[in-house]
């Protein structure tokens, strides 16, 4: 039932709102016989219309452009946004639309006396407002969502500073936690709660885990508030405790909006094939014998073989099981899949002495970050938009699907929570043992991706074992943030870890740190957005204007991070 609702909620929500149409008299309302008055709307029907897009939108960022910024992936076609921060002006309309619906959910929960639904609304308000300020910086907050009220101050809302928004997010999360602590879930229809099926205890754990996230977010700017808050949550013992408690939402694959984002394009996955592992991530995982490599990535279709006896620089044709296939430069992707599944192996030989350089001969090959011509990497014979680079790995076959298995919108994990606690302990805060939290975090991530049996060997790797440093904690947290890389982006801005280098096509000497305010705000709330832009600190890309991707909002100012 929960999955069915995930597909049909749009129709349910639309039919739950009063529809106005033309009338003979201005004081008449023509009521839709199939609609429901807003004063009678059921809060259960409103929950999925907030929860579902909040989950899919954060996944689209963490699997999309932010995965490129944090060098988890790179694209070799249509790549400038993904690889080089060519994001342009970016509106937040979708997030504020969710906040308006969420405000209505809260109002209806109050009117109907449904405390559980109030807790959900407060949690989602915090999650969404927190995401908005994380991504853009200062934003309408205390005066937001009042467009239905008279007055220019409501029509053109003032932007609050992050020093106001983050404590507000925390206060609402604390209020939600108090509601869920009662265990009361009266009135909830479990199928309409897409995250936890009406389980108040799990909502309490999620809310407290978000508190840990946001306390750590402000740790450089409000360290005492952060320390006290994290210690309080830790002492409560109520937070995500294992991989089976990860906050996720399933995809059901019934339509484009309900399917994994790259699995619904035409031509059997052309958008899917554009996404490649980035060497920054892949090289470290291979060096560490990380068992998640084969879960996330597929071996190259055709492997290069170094052969100094070859009389030419490289084979023009591929070899099948060692035998040259005359006239065959490359197979198309789907043909390769079929032939490899039948047990065939494919190689090409090259002579580095004659070619004058080395090629990547590994089983798994990624793209270096920010290449000028990523589609040509590793001597791809079919460059350009064909994107059939047989010599660079694709994502694993899991990600060709539309739904099921690991194809979930991942909102928060127990691994993230325990990395936060490991960092807090490493700082000397009273939250237990740093190494224990770190080891648990690594173990939970491996379990999440189905390779928990490899934990003992992985944690003993000298490059993985806890060494007491913040860098080691954040690096493993960055790896574990696969498909949820917005969090690793925010961690990198705060700590400078992991160490990431720009590439040859980087537009600026640093990685971008924020989204720019979009045209809607610039055109229709110009005075207020101008004040917010003036509060940004420009240290990189000054020739681009103050509203650029490298301008630091309050959360980074004065910290010396990430540069």
UniProtKB/TrEMBL annotation:
Q: Does the keyword DNA repair apply?
A: no
Q: Does the keyword Lipoprotein apply?
A: yes
For this UniProt record, give its keywords in alphabetical order, as a comma-separated list: Lipoprotein
A Pfam family hit: SusD-like_2
Query: Gene3D superfamilies under this entry?
Result: 1.25.40.390
Q: Which SUPFAM superfamilies match?
A: TPR-like (SSF48452)
Tell me what this protein is called: SusD/RagB family nutrient-binding outer membrane lipoprotein
Gene source species: Negadavirga shengliensis
């Amino acid at each position: 039932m929960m999955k069915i609702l995930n597909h049909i909620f749009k129709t349910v929500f639309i039919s739950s709102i009063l529809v106005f149409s033309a009338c003979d008299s201005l004081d008449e309302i023509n009521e839709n016989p199939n609609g429901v008055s807003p004063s009678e709307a059921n809060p259960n029907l409103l929950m999925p219309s907030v929860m579902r897009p909040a989950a899919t939108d954060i996944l689209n960022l963490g699997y999309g452009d932010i995965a490129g910024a944090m060098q988890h992936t790179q694209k070799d076609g249509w790549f400038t946004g993904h690889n080089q921060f060519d994001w342009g002006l970016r509106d937040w309309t979708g997030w504020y639309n969710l906040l308006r619906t969420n405000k209505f959910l809260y109002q209806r929960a109050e009117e109907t006396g449904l405390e559980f639904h109030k807790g959900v609304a407060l949690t989602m308000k915090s999650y969404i407002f927190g995401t908005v300020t994380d991504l853009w910086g200062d934003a309408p907050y205390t005066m937001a969502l009042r467009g239905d009220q008279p007055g220019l101050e409501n029509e053109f809302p003032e932007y609050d500073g992050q020093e106001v928004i983050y404590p507000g997010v925390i206060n609402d999360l604390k209020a939600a936690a108090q509601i869920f602590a009662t265990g009361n879930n009266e009135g909830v229809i479990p199928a309409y709660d897409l995250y936890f099926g009406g389980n108040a205890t799990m909502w309490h754990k999620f809310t407290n885990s978000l508190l840990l996230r946001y306390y750590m977010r402000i740790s450089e700017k409000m360290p005492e508030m952060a320390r006290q808050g994290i210690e309080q949550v830790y002492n409560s013992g109520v937070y995500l405790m294992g991989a089976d408690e990860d906050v996720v939402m399933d995809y059901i694959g019934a339509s484009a909006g309900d399917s994994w984002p790259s699995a619904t394009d035409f031509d059997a996955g052309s958008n899917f094939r554009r996404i490649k592992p980035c060497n920054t991530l892949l090289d470290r995982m291979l060096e560490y014998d990380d068992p998640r490599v084969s879960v996330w990535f597929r071996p190259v279709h055709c492997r290069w073989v170094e052969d100094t006896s070859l009389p030419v620089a490289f084979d023009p044709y591929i070899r099948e099981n060692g035998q040259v296939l005359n006239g065959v430069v490359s197979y198309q992707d789907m043909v390769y899949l079929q032939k490899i599944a039948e047990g065939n192996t494919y190689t090409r030989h090259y002579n580095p002495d004659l070619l004058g350089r080395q090629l990547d001969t590994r089983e798994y090959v990624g793209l270096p970050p920010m290449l000028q011509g990523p589609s040509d990497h590793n001597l791809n014979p079919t460059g350009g938009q064909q994107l059939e680079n047989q010599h660079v790995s694709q994502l694993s076959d899991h990600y060709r699907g539309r739904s099921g298995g690991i194809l979930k919108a991942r909102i928060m994990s127990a691994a993230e929570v325990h990395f936060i606690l490991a960092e807090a302990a490493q700082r000397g805060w009273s939250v237990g043992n740093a190494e224990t939290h770190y080891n648990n975090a690594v173990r939970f991530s491996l379990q999440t991706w189905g390779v928990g049996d490899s934990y003992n060997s992985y944690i003993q790797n000298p490059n993985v074992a806890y060494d007491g440093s913040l860098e080691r904690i954040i690096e493993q947290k960055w790896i574990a943030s696969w498909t949820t890389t917005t969090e690793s982006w925010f961690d990198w801005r705060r700590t400078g870890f992991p160490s990431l280098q720009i590439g040859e096509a980087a537009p600026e000497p640093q990685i971008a740190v924020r989204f720019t305010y979009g045209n809607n705000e610039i055109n229709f709330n110009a005075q207020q957005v101008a004040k917010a832009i003036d509060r940004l600190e420009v240290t990189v890309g000054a020739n681009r204007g103050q509203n650029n991707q490298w301008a630091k909002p309050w959360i980074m100012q004065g910290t010396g991070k990430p540069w």
